[in-house]
Each structure stands twice: as C-alpha cells, then as structure tokens.
Design brief:
Elements (H helix, E strand, L loop, with lengths): L12 H6 L20 H7 L4 H6 L1 H15 L6 E2 L6 H5 L5 E3 L3 E3 L10 H8 L4 H4 L1 H14 L5 E6 L1 H10 L7 H9 L1 H25 L3 E6 L7 H7 L1 H17 L7 E5 L6 H4 L6 E3 L6 H8 L5 E6 L8 H14 L2 H4 L3 E5 L9 H14 L4
Parallel strand pairs: 1-4, 4-5, 5-6, 6-7, 7-8, 8-9
Antiparallel strand pairs: 2-3
Helix pairs in contact: 2-4, 4-8, 8-11, 9-11, 10-11, 11-13, 16-18
The protein binds coproporphyrinogen III (CP3).
Length: 369
C-alpha cells in the first residue's frame, strides 16, 4: 500500500460531529462549494473541458481548495472536485459536459435489449485503474490542505447514476428510466447491483487515497414513489453502507463516516436512518424539527438544509433562514446531531459574499455563550 504521510489534521469538527459526538459548534460545508459561482473557478478552469479538469490532479486540487482559501476558518470540510458521472465513464460510456446545459451521453443505454446492456453487465471494470486520476487528485489535495479541514470523497447513488445512463442527461419527464423500472424491473435491478459494487470499490479506493469522510449523492431519489424507492434505491444505498466498512477493513484502512443524501425522498427519512449511514443529508423540503423527531434516539446525524435559493435573498432573509435552521435542529439544547449545509448544491449566480454571510450567521447564531 502507498505510504501517505499527510499533515496532521487541525480541524476534525466534522468527523466528530458525523460520529455523533457532542461538539462545540456545528461544522459547516456546502455541496458544490467549488464551482461556477466563484470567479476564481472560471479563472482557473479557463476554457478547459470540465472532465479534463477532473482528470488533472493539479487542476482538480486547485479547484477543491478555492472555497477553503476564500472562506478560511468559516468552512469545516473540503470536497474533492470531480463528478458523479465518472462511474458511467469508467464503465465505458461516453459522457460529455456541455457548457450551460450539463451532462450529455451521446449513446445512452436505452433498453435492456440493447447490445450495450449485456456489455455493461459483462465488462469487468477496473475501478482502480480507470479512476486512478481521482485517487491522485485526492492524495495531492490532502497534501495541499495541510490538515486545515477533512476531505470528502463521494460517488453518485446507483439509482441516480442509472437515471443518467438511461436518460442520457438531465430530464424533466424521466420517460426512459420510468419505462425501465415498470417494464423491466429485474433487468433494472441487475444493473443497479453492478453499479453498486463499483461504488463500494470506488469509495474504498478514495479512502485509501486520503478521503476522510464520504457522501453518496442520490440526487434523483425524489423521482421515485415510496414503493419504488424501496425497490430501486434503498437496497443499493444500504448495500454500500454495509459493504464499504467491510471493504475498508479488508484493505486495512480506518473506518470513515458515511453520508447519504437522498434528495427529494422526504417520505423515506425514517428508512434512511436505518440504512447504516452515520449522516443523512436533508434537502430544504424537510422541516428540521420534524426530522429531528423522526431520527429519535437513533445514532444518526442530520445534514442540511437551507433552501439554496435563500442565498438570492437579502441579508435579513438569510439571517431568518439560519435562525430557523438553528432552532429547528435544536442546536442550543442538543449540541450534536447537526452538520450545517444547504439543502442542495449552491447554484450559479450566488454572490460569494452572500455565502460568506450565510457561514458567518451560522457561526454567530451557534456560538456558545
Ligand atoms: O464542490 C463540489 O461539490 C465538488 C464537486 C462536484 C461537482 N459535481 C462539480 C461540478 C460534486 C460533488 C458534483 C456532484 C454531482 N454531479 C451531482 C450530485 C450533486 C447534485 O447536485 O445533485 C450531480 C447530479 C452531478 C451531475 C452534474 N455535473 C450535473 C447535473 C452538472 C451540470 C449542472 C450543474 O449543476 O452544474 C454537472 C457539472 C458540474 N459538476 C459542474 C461542477 C463544478 C459545473 C461545470 C461547469 O459548467 O463548469
């Protein structure tokens, strides 16, 4: 195994919070914190292709560090600059990032009768080799972070990845993937299982490279009905939470906290607390106080969950949203169980100083007197 000797961690707040410990203040980070709302992102990226940036460890680590450098002590975690769609790429699919439009698969997997279906199932994917550039970016970023904050690794959830592979990009109708789950449920499950196993190995190798906490993004969970979530998302998310610790142990690695973010699946919060993840991410449609009640005395930490759109508002409205969140998560009474974030990724056109104000307000309103 490689010998990574990384600089000592100076701020382990998010790791202690994720393991359910009582903490001095809630840790803070935001999904997509490295991205298009930052002018320095555009500057560093130049006219390079998005995936070219992901594949270049030097560029990916520079982009990962940008929010840490800009916001200094206000942020408690970094997340490696990459994308959930690197798994379909590792499986042999072509994925392009089209400027201002998002991901595009020129040759999506349309039906289980496609030759591509059998190929995808039969191909032995070498996650170590295919995604080596991600591990290199993680290791380099850990060095450059100098122990300032822990580094997140991540992957897409099997359901969300299959949606992209079948739809070929973003969609409002979900026509193709809905056809799959209702017409070809068994074929859907077979491919979901294949993706799931790749996710486990990919996350384990990210930890081996230096990731200190991991998040599984199920961005399209909310497109499923409660009954379909039970069939097509939950078992695979639970498989990851069960098998990643086993794989880490096999590799002789320390356990890391695991976060699941099942966006839109508010009906499944109770089930998500039993899947084996230490942290469950909430989108902004959840009421924090109700969510805390649903968790009950289970050892699950909640993450979230302000409406990212609140950052388009005034400072007064940001203060109001933060106040509601701090009260809702019962911070003053509990002093644990909450990682502050937004309810989804930060959106373009947010002014970086308004995000700074959001961070400052969380710090101010959770300060121990
Ligand atoms: O700061 C970070 O969070 C790290 C990097 C990160 C990116 N994508 C960079 C990115 C992470 C964690 C992701 C995850 C991701 N990618 C998700 C899950 C999170 C979510 O938002 O639900 C999803 C669904 C994707 C797929 C994806 N990648 C889409 C739909 C898009 C285009 C639309 C959009 O919101 O940008 C991307 C592109 C992408 N991924 C960009 C960045 C910085 C923008 C690329 C650009 O235009 O420069």
């Amino acid at each position: 195994m490689e010998d990574h000797s990384f600089p000592a961690l100076q701020n382990d707040l998010i790791l202690r919070a994720a393991w359910g410990q009582t903490i001095e203040r809630p840790p803070i980070w935001v999904m997509r914190q490295a991205g298009r709302y930052l002018p320095e992102y555009h500057q560093a990226k130049g006219n390079r292709d998005f995936f070219e940036c992901c594949r270049d460890p030097e560029v990916a680590s520079t982009l990962t560090l940008q929010p840490i450098e800009r916001y200094g002590g206000l942020l408690d975690a970094a997340i490696i600059f990459s994308d959930i769609l690197v798994i379909p790429q590792a499986m042999g699919m072509v994925v392009e990032m089209v400027d201002k439009k998002g991901p595009h698969f020129p040759d999506p997997l349309r039906t289980p009768q496609d030759k591509q279906y059998v190929e995808l199932l039969q191909r032995k994917v070498d996650v170590a080799k295919e995604l080596d550039y991600v591990y290199k970016a993680i290791t380099l970023t850990r060095k450059k972070l100098q122990g300032r904050v822990p580094l997140f690794g991540f992957c897409g959830a099997p359901w969300t990845l299959l949606c992209y592979m079948v739809e070929g990009g973003g969609t409002k109708l979900f026509k193709e993937i809905k056809t799959w789950i209702y017409k070809y449920p068994e074929e859907t499950k077979t491919l979901l299982q294949k993706i799931t196993e790749l996710c486990v190995e990919y996350l384990a190798l990210q930890v081996k490279a230096g990731a200190q906490i991991v998040q599984v993004f199920d961005s399209w969970a909310g497109e499923l009905s409660p009954a379909s979530f039970k069939k097509f998302s939950e078992p695979y998310l639970a498989y990851i939470a069960k098998h990643l610790p086993i794989r880490l142990k096999e590799l002789g690695l320390e356990q890391v906290p695991m976060v699941v973010f099942p966006k839109g699946a508010w009906y499944a919060l109770d089930a998500c607390c039993n899947m084996g993840y230490q942290v469950v991410g909430l989108d902004w449609t959840h009421d924090p106080a109700e969510s805390v009640q649903i968790v009950g005395d289970r050892p699950v930490v909640l993450q979230g969950n302000a409406d990212p759109g609140a950052l388009y508002g005034t400072h007064e409205s940001i203060t109001e949203v933060v106040t509601g969140m701090v009260k809702g998560f019962g911070w003053a009474e509990r002093k644990k169980g909450w990682i502050a974030n937004l309810g989804h990724g930060i959106t373009p056109f947010v002014k970086p100083d308004d995000l700074k104000f959001y961070f400052e307000e969380i710090h101010r309103l959770t300060k121990t007197q």
